Amino acid sequence: MIIPLLFLSSFPSIQSYLSSRKETVLLPANKLWLNTGLEIKPGQEVKITATGSINLAIHRLVEAAYTHKYPRLGWMEPEGGQPLGYKDLRIKQYLISPDNNYGVLLACITTEDLSKTNPKPKNISVIGRNASIKSEKGGKLWLVVNDAVLNKDAESAYILSQKELDETYGSGKVTVKQREDEWKRIVDDSYFEAYFDDNSGAFLVQIQFAQ
Predict the structure, then answer these.
(1) Among 19, 62, 88, 173, which residue's CB has the most CB atoms within a 10 Å radius?
(2) What 8-state DSSP symbol labels residue 81?
(3) Rounded distance between C-alpha atoms, residue 126 and residue 175, angstroms
(4) C-beta of residue 83 within 8 angstroms of C-beta of residue 73
(5) How far apart are CA 52 and CA 129, in angstroms?
(6) What is the mean pLDDT of the chain?
(7) Stretch 6-11: mean pLDDT, rounded?
(8) Beta pairing, strands 139-145 & 105-110
């Protein structure tokens, strides 16, 4: 065993993970920012790996099964993906991380509380299947899948023209009147996490702490 140990001693970052603490968390796809309760020290590095699959529009998946068509949003693994033939681009700006895949696993180390009223902290990290992250200031580790969080300014992104709705969801499946009624309920109830509530599945996430 002398040679392997001498070899590993040349790579302290590898060695630091060999006997390190590990924690496992189940992240439901419909949870808008899960507080893992894990405290990350300032400058401490954690390695995050994830498995599992999620769907961001389970009702659309059921509709597709009835019509024997490919779903616009299929099952996704932790690296996420792009919707099939999706043209509703205006809602994309309301993704937690708009420049990244739908459904990709995201993480944030922060002392803030994250929720539908604070869904986009500055120091979001894209994890996907695996990544190592750290924070200079430290804080709690939060996890989420990348989906849209609405706010009061999202009306024009949610209520599209009938032509746009037909192109996006299929002819006559969603009407402007339906969207207007839905939007009123969303605003009245501050139901800005609506897009999360039709998510299904989960990621099993392992967090490994460097010594």
Answers:
(1) 88
(2) B
(3) 35
(4) yes
(5) 10
(6) 88
(7) 48
(8) antiparallel
| Residues whose CB is less than 8 angstroms from the CB of residue 146 and which lie 6 or more positions away in sequence, other chains included | 80, 95, 96, 97, 100, 101, 102, 103, 104, 105, 106
Number of residues that make up the chain: 211
99 in a domain, yes or no? yes
Range of the domain at 171: 152-191
Domain count for the chain, please give it. Answer: 2
Residue 112 shares a structural domain with residue 165: no
Q: E-assigned strands of 20-166?
A: 22-28, 34-40, 45-55, 105-110, 124-126, 130-134, 139-145
pLDDT tens digits along 33-52: 999 999 999 999 999 999 99
Q: Does 2 reside within a domain?
A: no
Model's pTM, two decimal places? 0.86
Residues 96 and 157 in one domain: no
d(CA 156, CA 107): 29
Question: What's the pLDDT tens digit per position in 145-164?
Answer: 999 999 999 999 999 999 98
Same domain, 109 and 88: yes
Helix (H) or strand (E) holding 203: strand 200-209
- Based on the domain organization, do 71 and 129 belong to the same domain? yes
**Phi-psi category of residue 48: left, alpha or beta, with phi > 0 → left and psi -120 to 50 → alpha:** beta
Is 44 within a domain? Answer: yes
Report if residue 11 sits inside a domain: no
The structure tokens listed for 30 are 């419909």
Cβ contacts of 143 within 8 Å, gap of 6 or more: 25, 27, 33, 34, 36, 105, 106, 107, 127, 203, 205
Regarding whether 180 and 85 lie in a shared domain, the answer is no
